[in-house]
């Protein structure tokens, strides 16, 4: 069903898509730049990559898996934003999908960073965990998004329950 998009619907989608894209870009920078530099203090990024290249590994630092994994969220976000701007999805639905994508960023980051972490661990005989603190920002943002999404779902359920008992019709273009 196509309806005229609300003002909120025209803004939530693009803002959400930018947030999801920013999350993915920051995750990539964390995986490929910040964490390697924190893992090997005193080394330049070029020295780290040279040491990794000497190992003759097939996919150094996991660029392939990282790129594919981190592209999924922004692609879905762009599609959802477009549908929201066109009025095919309500602002509340767009908001919930964007929060869901940000919530899924944490497991996506873990999957995307695994090969790079293991490459660093195998090359430099360190553990494969994050050494840079910036990954915590991504996990915190995903946690906050999960809490916000849960709050939205509960609020929508309560509203729907009240409306079904009073017989009111819900406005599908409201932001929540």
From TrEMBL:
Keywords: Membrane, Transmembrane, Transmembrane helix. The chain crosses the membrane at residues 12-33, 61-81, 93-114, 134-155. This is Uncharacterized protein. The lineage of its organism: Bacteria, Bacillati, Actinomycetota, Actinomycetes, Micrococcales.
